[in-house]
Amino acid sequence: MPKKTEPLEIEVQYACDRQDLPKKPRVRAWARAALAESGNQDGRVTVRFVAADEGRRLNREYRSQDDATNVLSFPYALEPQLCGDLVLCVPVVAREAAEQDKSLDAHYAHLVVHGMLHLQGYDHEESEEQAAAMEDLERSILADLGYPDPYCNEE
User: Fold this and answer.
1) Domain-located, residue 98
2) Is residue 97 part of a domain?
3) Which of 24, 44, 61, 92 has the largest CB neighbor count within 10 A?
4) Domain that residue 46 falls in
5) Annotated binding residue at 124?
6) Do the domain assignments include residue 151?
7) What's in the GO CC field (predicted)?
């Protein structure tokens, strides 16, 4: 008899002090909603909220870009289980939400969904078609979660 795999474990870490960070159950719900699209419900994902210095260091070390970015995705495995890390840079997310006139909650939800799709192999940098497909999927997942289109304010 084949060994039954464990359901997706989602660890949420807070590596910075802010009162407006989303609660762990909410983050897990966003991540699970994005995972439902792939059909793979097994694995382990860590979602980490960081300050600007850690976000910048990771972006420089892994993407050769010397600034902090909103979300970094580190996939470790897709099969047979999804394994990876998401790192959200809190000051960047807060700044973007304010600049784009979006609620902080909606922007966090979008970036968790976006990052989870990257962990599942989705890519928006390879082609316009892939980018459009990923954005459509993000819109659908976020609508199911009760959030507005995250791209409606962008040109």
Assistant:
1) yes
2) yes
3) 92
4) 9-144
5) yes
6) no
7) cytoplasm
